[in-house]
What does this fold into?
Amino acid sequence: MPKELGKTYQPQEVEAAIYAMWTEGGYFAPKKGDKPAYTIVIPPPNVTGQLHLGHAFDNALQDALIRYKRMDGYEALWMPGTDHAGIATQIVVEAELRKTEGKSRFDLGREAFIKRVWEWKEKYGNRIVEQLKKLGSSCDWNRLRFTMDEGLSRAVREVFVSLYDKGLIYRGNRITNICVSCQTALSEAEVDYEEQEGKLYHVSYPLSDGTGFLTVATTRPETMLGDAAVAVHPNDRRFAGLIGRTVLLPLMNREIPVIADEYVDKEFGTGCVKITPCHDPNDYDVAKRHNLPELLIMNQNGVINANGGKYAGLTREQARKAVLADLEKDGLLIKTEPHPHNVGTCARCHQNVEPMASEQWFVSMKELAAPAIAAVKEGRTKFVPERFEKLYLHWIENVRDWCVSRQIWWGHRIPVWTCSACGNVFAMREDPESCPHCYSIDLVQDPDVLDTWFSSALWPFSTLGFPDDTEDLRRFYPTDVLVTAYDIIYLWVARMIFSGIEHTGKEPFHTVYMHGLLRDANGKKMSKSAGNGVDPLEMIDQYGTDALRIYLTSLANLQGGDMNFAPDRCEHFRNFCNKLWNASRFVLSNLGDTGGWTLPESLSLPDMWIVTKLQGLVYDVTAHLDKYELNLAIQKLIDFIWDDFCDWTIELSKNQLRHDDTKEATQQILAYVLETSLRLLHPFAPFITEEIYQSFPDGLRGSPSLMIAQWPEPEDRLRFNHEAGQMELLMDAVRAVRTRRSEMKVPPSKKAAWTVETQHQELFESHAWVFKSLAGASDVTFGAAAEGAVQIVTSGATIALPLAELVDLEAEKARLAKELASAQKEYDVLSAKLQNPGFTEKAPERIVLAERERLAALKERIERLSP
It folds into this structure.
């Protein structure tokens, strides 16, 4: 038995039951068969995460695409999962440990701490999965993966050892970004740069022979403790005689050389820069070119080490204050000036990072990057919008070797062991029992774990069974489209592309659909601290899931720019849902007990018009979805359902349903248009469309659920372009009369006889009932207008309304005279403004053009109001 629709749509009362119906029916899982596969892998949210607007937006887009393809005849797989989020998760668990027990991870030890993180993951890790279900996400939850589950861990080992054996993973001492708060290395892509108000310190470095000094400008005086040289530009004549001489390093009394290198900017500061090889990537490169010594003066926790002399044990902030105080005391701090500059910050904890030489594991990128560049340049992987292709190529063509080791405990431990007996270093897919060289069992595993993005880079194929040759991998890989925000194009997208090509020989997806970030209504970044964050779960409780999904989808501009989210706009889309609900109740209440239907053999003119419009809608929505123009697709649907179907077809049907000779055909048209519209709208608003669909009589439902119903196809036989054009003539007349009656403040209930002059008399005469139903016509006659009538010119006719029957003539004349005087006054002022060269020559061209258009509109209004 079909459901009966309630008087009002209450999403909170139906959404959970509908989602349960979908899951119990197994509709999210692809079935084995001959249908083509279509795959999307979800960007795995962190297990630490809670649903935020970014998740809601990203998943609304993915779900719309996967639901569309599922209905369009594909075995559609939306692969779900979560990310272990190494640093982020460790930070959360450590904070809880400190709060509840007053302990650090070191108090527990590595094994006990990792056990504690697994316990936390089991308790809270799937919280965001349950929240994604509230959005209506139609993932195949039976395939839920986790980046540290057994299968994905095997994939990580396989990839690491494969790269290691090829010489593409190596351990080296290089400058890397160190977060002293998280106490781990970071890759360049995990560092955010922001402008900070700093200072430029001018410090005097005395020449060793006592004949003078060089003044060096630096923003980081505490790192001078590790200086290895002072550098000048080789073409800077000011210092030509000093190159090759030495200076005494202030505070440390260490003799260091003056060198020449083209890296130096002659215009920056004094033209002299200090070279600190272990604490600046550019200085590191200079040191390599000049064979300078490398002195590390800071530990990963940001504390000065023994190489810092008397400053050892101070934090970097304390050391800066102490160094500056001592320089000033010795008369070596010449001056200090404000200096805003870009500073790298940790993307996780937002503390300033510390460039520092350290021994880390790196992935050699040159060989891996080449095919990933070719894949995009040769069109095998495309970016939508296309402009993101340039960003991708710029990064990957200039990519540095990837630092993949992290000094934390939670994550994939690096599968490299050192034999204490013979010193052999080796990588293994399985934990070894003994050294493969000398058979000693005295083995030590590398303590570091892999960058979280190392396992995430394998996501499109590791989730499908790699390294095994599984049926899922053969059927669903490569995937089809990746939907994600532009802010992780380097962190994740690029790494998936080169990893997929290297380890499977195939690009992981053919399209990357990139979107912008959501900001608040004023364009500001959302955050809890700023008080402008929006909780999508609260939006769902207030407006319903579908209203939120439709609004989010409507924001998805194809330029990939950031979007402003105004919570109260959800009300507009809730109103649309209510409009659809009420229209559906009207249709279903008028279908009677019909057990099935086909389109009537003979269609009326309004029927031909709505059916033609519907074929255009099917074509447009499908085309927009295929081109990832989801915002255009949903707008077309809203316009059709709200305007064409509700405001015209349903209103006209109220007359036709009263007559036995038109009732059945009208029922069939209403059912056909509503059911087709629901199928088109379902990917964007799955809950309300399914609830309405389940209320259809059994004979009108072609499948047990709307989500597995067949996607509509446009039918040329149902395109009646000529007849639709004729209907538009009638509609134009209705709109024009309604507008004039509104201007004259005629109550809708007041009827009046029409006199029509037209070349389409047969059309207007046979459809006089349209004017009586929708435009307040009491009678329709044809011929010349009587004197004193209000004449309305439309595209197909001139319609005369008897003014005396509609309004108080004297009052109307007075109103029109007042309106004409006001328009004339406004016209005169604007005309004078546009004749003033001071305005037309100085104002922006767009402003002048807008004012000219306003003047033309005023002129037209004056002509219309003039007697």
User: Anything to note?
Assistant: Residues 829 and 835 are 10 Å apart (CA to CA). The radius of gyration is 36 Å. The first strand starts at residue 37 and ends at 41.
